[in-house]
C-alpha cells in the first residue's frame, strides 16, 4: 500500500529503487509481536505473506508514516469534516460535543483504515471527556494544563540510572549523558512539570569514573 502511494507521486526510478531498499530493511522487524489481521479480499494465508514493518530508528520512517496517513488526514478533513483534528505520527485526536458523533467517527475511520491495511488499537482508541484529561504523546492533557504521565517519569529514572552506570564504567562520555537528560527535560517542559523536574534533577549527583 505504501509503495503504491509513493509510486504515484514519484516518477524517478532510482528514487523508487532506493525507497524499496529502505522499506525492505524494516520488513519483519516486529514479526514476533505481530497479531495477524485479515482485511477484505484476504485469503487464509495473506496476513502471513504481506510485507509489514518499517526500519526502526530510521528518520525516513516518520516520513513514510506521514505519506501513508495523509490519506487519513484528507478523509477526516473532507469527508468527516470534524473541524478540530490533531495527528502526530500514529496518534490522533478528534473533538466533538456529541458523544454519539464521536462513536460514529471512530467506526468510519476504522472502516477507512481497512482500505490502507491498518487497524485502530482497541485499548487506546477511547472517548474521553476533556475535563478528565486526554492521554496524548506521553502527557495527560487538561483544558488549562498538561501533566506528564507517570510511566514516562519511571522510564526516565531507569534511563538515568543506566546512563550514570555506563558513565561510571567508562562506557559513555559525560556529554552523551547530558544530551540524553537534556532531551527528556525539553520534552517534560511542555507540561506543568517545574516541581517534578526540580525534584528529579535538583539534587542530581553524577558519579565519578570507577564509582558505582
For the structure shown, list the relevant keywords.
mainly alpha, 3-stranded antiparallel β-sheet, 212 residues
Structure explained in plain terms:
With 212 residues, this protein is mainly alpha-helical. Helix content is 49%, strand content 8%. It is built from 8 helices and 5 strands, in the order H-H-H-H-E-E-H-E-E-E-H-H-H. The chain has helices spanning 2-9, 13-24, 46-49, 60-80, 99-114, 150-168, 174-188, 194-201; strands at residues 85-88, 91-94, 134-136, 139-141, 146-148. The chain has a 3-stranded antiparallel sheet. Helix 4 (60-80) packs across helix 5 and helix 6 packs antiparallel against helix 7. The longest helix has 21 residues, at 60-80. The model has no long low-confidence stretch (mean pLDDT 83).
Question: Quick gist of this model?
Answer:
The chain is mainly alpha-helical and 212 residues long. The protein contains 8 helices and 5 strands; from the N terminus they run ααααββαβββααα.
